[in-house]
């Protein structure tokens, strides 16, 4: 089977011939938006009797899908890519591509367009609908092919550098290689723009509109990454005559072109026509933020929330403005009001069991990569691997980013105080409910005031009064975390009062009010105490070697425990019902006691869970920094595995500790571990700093990883975006000379020069100096 494989094209060999096509047909009805990358299936044969045919397939994006002929041409090109392992005495490889099928999903009409190619023979194009039924496709159906072409372009642009979307044997090619091809893309986008909402939108947008959808996102990404906003401005200029709401995209394009006066004029005129457009209000808001006028921007953000209260992005923008203005209590209340949506990832193929996966090395550049084998550097401390924050997606990830920005500005202790001042805490809620229960069951013995209302203090014992006793705990709602040895106080906050923690599928703890009996709660408390004591004993007997190399869990040494004790654990807030109930003074239905905290609100359960996620991040980060400081004072090398440094780099980036994150990513590179992420993160950091030498050095490694994963495209990619950002400042000539001074091998130099050649062909800013 070895000589049946392609030379430089990845492929997955099937167990049963044709199973990839059948699986794609079955999955058609599950695709909601753009659909997955194109599928290219081929069947190879030797032509000999008794020799079984082989089926293989790979995924691909960037192929011209404007006609059946262009798709057939791609399959035909694969016939020249079969490996030739025969000697001089043979005529060549016995394996030949006999037929192929190229599948491309039409995201506008929700059908799968397929082109069967017989070699030798003819080309047959047809469509498969969501029910799996086959229909003939006439060759003169230009509208259908235009939709297929644009769908393929959108997938190629939006999936180009999405690190979260990964497939085996996924080949990425340049979707647009000439100015003429770019013009055809713009023409197709203009023709189908009114249908753009049909292809879906980003997961943070609840309802796709003509302004917020994958088509507009792809246009802004394609022209924005290279700073060529004039082309998007020309397109939106023509379209905004029919759709005034598109003025927000037009204004952003002009701001990108540094035409701010024209952008302001456009926004001022458009807001009179569409005063309820939240995208237009956000465009004005961002412009005012860039000028430092936060007060005016706040008014616009509030208006945007009124216009679209069910959208997450409007509440997110308002929260950001409150943080900019230092109104942290309002920011927390606004964040609590954000509508959260279930995350729906990219459409994907179903994974099939493969007979064999063929991933040939791609070019000379991959020789600089480490071996793709698992080593000790791929291991990490379980405490780092269990962090829940990396698993957040969609609106949950964006909300968590707001929370981390908040804590980076005011600190953890101040955040807890702000939280307890605006939300009803669990202990306050229980005390109020206990007071209400006493009033309910002992009405005759309840003293009354002059106006006939029951006295608060009279219905509770002295030790349980809320505010009027001198010995009342003023800081009850922000009672801190205690060491494991003080399990009595810890359990008093949680388990002993009927609180139980559950783990949700995404790793975020869910808090519920337990309905267990007192005996069951006491048993659970005893088990928790025994577990804590066992952990303490285990920690005391831990091997001291972990304290020397820094690879053990930080809690296992006294210094790490002391660092953890500094961080105050958040107590539970009184959880909201999950139905969006906010006002604390709203009374229940008949038979329920009215709630009396008129100046506080109920904290949504998801936000309470995010506080626990943030606590875990801060706890690990505090221990890590304490360990670093301790080892420095002892003049001992602080060692971690490469994976641990990578996790700590991600943790520092999440918590807005940029320099510490950069240091962690840099330390990650000291080990020969196959990992793309640290190089990618450092590339963005160095490009933002304007460091040409380091940016290009890191870009070479990123390019090697991309080519190793069969990303054979120049633009739009992360490298192109960073190189063009440097080119706007220093010019492409300086970048070219810097590459020349590195003395790179010919194959690597050719790949890196390809990004500058793209800039020259498409006249990216900086190409001429």
TrEMBL record:
Record field: compositional bias (Low complexity): 440-450
Parts forming coiled coils: none
Biased composition (Acidic residues): 528-542
Compositional bias ranges of the Gly residues kind: 577-591
Region called Disordered, residue ranges: 434-553, 573-594
Pfam family, one: ChAPs
Name of the protein: Chaps-domain-containing protein
Record organism: Rhodofomes roseus
Lineage, top ranks: Eukaryota, Fungi, Dikarya, Basidiomycota, Agaricomycotina
């Amino acid at each position: 089977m070895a000589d049946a494989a392609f030379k430089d094209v990845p492929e997955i060999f099937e167990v049963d011939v044709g199973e990839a096509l059948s699986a794609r047909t079955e999955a058609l009805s599950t695709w909601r938006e753009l659909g997955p990358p194109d599928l290219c299936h081929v069947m190879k044969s030797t032509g000999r009797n008794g020799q079984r045919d082989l089926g293989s397939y790979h995924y691909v994006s960037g192929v011209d899908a404007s006609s059946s002929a262009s798709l057939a041409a791609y399959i035909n090109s694969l016939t020249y890519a079969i490996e030739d392992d025969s000697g001089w005495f043979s005529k060549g490889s016995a394996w030949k591509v006999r037929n192929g099928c190229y599948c491309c999903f039409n995201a506008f009409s929700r059908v799968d367009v397929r082109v069967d190619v017989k070699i030798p023979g003819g080309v047959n194009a047809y469509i498969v609908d969501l029910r799996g039924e086959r229909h003939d496709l006439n060759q003169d159906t230009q509208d259908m092919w235009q939709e297929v072409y644009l769908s393929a372009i959108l997938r190629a642009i939006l999936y180009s550098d999405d690190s979260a979307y990964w497939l085996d044997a996924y080949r990425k090619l340049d979707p647009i290689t000439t100015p003429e091809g770019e013009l055809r893309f713009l023409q197709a986008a203009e023709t189908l723009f009114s249908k753009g909402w049909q292809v879906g939108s980003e997961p943070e947008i609840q309802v796709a509109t003509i302004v917020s959808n994958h088509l507009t996102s792809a246009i802004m990404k394609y022209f924005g990454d290279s700073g060529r906003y004039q082309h998007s401005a020309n397109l939106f200029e023509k379209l905004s005559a029919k759709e005034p709401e598109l003025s927000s995209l037009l204004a952003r394009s002009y701001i990108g072109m540094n035409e701010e006066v024209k952008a302001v004029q456009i926004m001022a005129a458009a807001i009179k026509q569409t005063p309820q457009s939240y995208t237009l209000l956000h465009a004005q808001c961002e412009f005012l933020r860039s000028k430092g006028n936060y007060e005016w921007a706040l008014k616009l953000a509030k208006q945007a929330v009124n216009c679209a209260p069910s959208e997450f992005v409007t509440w997110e923008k308002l929260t950001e403005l409150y943080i900019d203005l230092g109104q942290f209590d309002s920011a927390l209340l606004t964040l609590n009001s954000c509508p959260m949506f279930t995350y729906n990832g990219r459409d994907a193929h179903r994974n099939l069991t493969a007979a064999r996966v063929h991933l040939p090395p791609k070019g000379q550049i991959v020789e600089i990569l480490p071996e793709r084998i698992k080593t000790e550097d791929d291991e990490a401390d379980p405490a780092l691997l269990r962090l829940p924050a990396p698993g957040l997606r969609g609106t949950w990830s964006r909300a968590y980013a707001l929370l981390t920005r908040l804590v980076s500005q005011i600190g953890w202790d101040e955040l807890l105080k702000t939280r307890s001042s605006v939300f009803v805490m669990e202990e306050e809620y229980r005390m109020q409910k206990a007071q209400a229960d006493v009033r309910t069951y002992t009405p005759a013995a309840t003293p009354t005031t002059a106006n006939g209302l029951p006295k608060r203090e009279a219905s509770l014992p002295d030790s349980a009064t809320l505010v009027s006793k001198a010995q009342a705990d003023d800081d009850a709602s922000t009672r801190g975390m205690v060491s494991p040895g003080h399990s009595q106080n810890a359990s008093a906050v949680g388990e002993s009062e009927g609180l139980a923690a559950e783990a949700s599928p995404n790793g975020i703890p869910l808090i519920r009010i337990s309905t267990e009996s007192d005996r069951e709660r006491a048993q659970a408390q005893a088990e928790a105490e025994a577990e804590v004591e066992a952990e303490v004993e285990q920690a005391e007997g831990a091997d001291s070697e972990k304290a020397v190399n820094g690879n053990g869990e930080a809690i296992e040494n006294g210094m790490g425990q002391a660092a953890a004790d500094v961080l105050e654990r958040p107590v539970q807030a009184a959880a909201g019902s999950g139905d969006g109930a906010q006002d604390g003074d709203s009374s229940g239905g008949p038979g329920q006691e009215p709630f009396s905290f008129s100046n506080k609100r109920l904290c949504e359960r998801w936000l309470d869970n995010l506080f626990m996620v943030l606590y875990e991040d801060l706890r690990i980060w505090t221990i890590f920094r304490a360990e670093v400081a301790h080892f420095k004072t002892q003049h001992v090398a602080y060692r971690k595995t490469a994976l641990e440094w990578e996790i700590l780099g991600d943790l520092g980036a999440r918590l807005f500790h940029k320099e510490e994150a950069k240091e962690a990513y840099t330390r990650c590179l000291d080990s020969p571990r196959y990992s793309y992420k640290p190089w990618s993160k450092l590339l963005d950091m160095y490009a933002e700093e304007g460091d040409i030498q380091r940016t290009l050095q890191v870009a070479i490694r990123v390019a090697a990883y991309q080519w190793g994963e069969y990303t054979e495209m120049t633009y739009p990619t992360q490298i192109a975006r960073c190189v063009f950002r440097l080119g706007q400042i220093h010019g492409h000539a300086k970048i070219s000379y810097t590459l020349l001074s590195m003395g790179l091998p010919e194959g690597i130099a050719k790949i890196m020069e390809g990004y500058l050649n793209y800039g020259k062909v498409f006249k990216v800013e900086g190409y001429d100096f």
